[in-house]
Specification:
51% helix; 6 strands; 235 residues; alpha/beta; oxidoreductase; KR_dom; NAD(P)-bd_dom_sf; Rossmann fold; 8 helices
Length: 235
């Protein structure tokens, strides 16, 4: 008989919130289908997930801006596990810059990753999630609701993602599919370094961020992952 153990797709699983979410769901022994761009990092996450409790883990390595990679991710999951119960869209990038000093190429890159690739992956997975009356969680940001200087396109992309989440939630409710987002503040991860901050700049950024967060500290990816676990499960 086909296994009834839930299957989750997690994009951006090689680091940050995506990685931590994979580890959280590994504790529940969910079957994991993980996607990321760094093959070496993906292999390390698989090893960690199995050490944490997962027995069934598969991966798709590639850039989800390519529609074929997104489609292959879904197809590979179905071929491996035969079903999809949940989707966690955790892939995302940060492009620094104001409207004045950034290019339209920067804008396209920001929206291709943070919006378009999420829509594409969701479209491919959606018919299968409807079958299982499953769940979708999008990793957004406080930048989707608050404006910040110097990261204009990032803020815009997360605001767009929030609207996508809300509209999709209304469309999917009649099918019994729950759609939510998490909107964390500053989280310790590599996203700011990849956006161009060196170690000293990143350290200064984290110190300054302590003064803008109610708890007097920035967040950890594991904390967000626990919220995602709550949203994808039926707890």
């Amino acid at each position: 008989m086909p296994s009834e153990v839930p299957v989750v797709l997690i994009s951006g699983a090689s680091s940050g919130i995506g990685r931590s979410t994979a580890l959280e769901l590994a504790k529940l022994k969910w079957r994991l289908s993980l996607s990321g761009r760094n093959e070496e990092a993906m292999a390390a996450v698989v090893k960690e997930c199995k050490k944490t409790g997962a027995t069934d883990v598969t991966t798709t390595v590639g850039d989800l801006r390519d529609d074929e990679v997104a489609k292959d991710f879904v197809d590979h999951t179905l071929q491996t596990f035969g079903r999809i119960d949940s989707l966690v869209n955790a892939a995302g990038i940060l492009v620094n810059g104001t409207v004045e000093d950034s290019s339209l190429t920067d804008y396209d890159k920001q929206f291709d990753v943070n919006v378009r690739s999420i829509i594409a992956l969701t479209k491919y997975a959606l018919p299968h999630i409807i079958k299982t009356k499953g769940t979708i969680v999008n990793v957004s940001s406080v930048a989707g609701t608050n404006a910040f200087p110097g990261v204009t396109y990032y803020c815009m992309s997360k605001a767009a993602l929030d609207q996508f989440t809300k509209c999709l939630a209304l469309e999917m409710a009649p099918h019994g599919v729950r759609v939510n987002s998490v909107n964390p503040g500053v989280i310790v991860s590599n996203i700011h370094r990849r956006a161009g901050l060196d170690d000293a700049q990143y350290k200064a950024f984290l110190e300054k961020s302590k003064t803008t967060h109610a708890l007097g500290r920035v967040g950890e990816a594991e904390e967000v992952a626990k919220a995602i676990k709550f949203l994808v499960t039926n707890e």
